[in-house]
User: Which sequence fits this backbone?
């Protein structure tokens, strides 16, 4: 059995990877995962201008 963890910086990117792998005979194992990759505030002069959060999306895939 082959085992891969597919990752992307966007949900649509992960969906594209999964769709391509499904066409090659891979199957998802479990549900997808989302983790916070970066989470910080952009500050100028002691004032928070914006909060920046990026995510990493992943899915475990298997092929028998």
Assistant:
């Amino acid at each position: 059995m082959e085992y891969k963890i597919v990752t992307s910086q966007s949900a649509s990117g992960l969906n594209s990877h999964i769709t391509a792998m499904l066409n090659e005979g891979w199957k998802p194992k479990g549900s997808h995962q989302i983790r916070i990759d970066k989470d910080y505030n952009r500050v100028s002069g002691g004032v928070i201008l914006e909060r920046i959060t990026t995510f990493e999306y992943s899915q475990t895939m298997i092929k028998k």
Observations:
- The two ends are 4 Å apart (CA to CA).
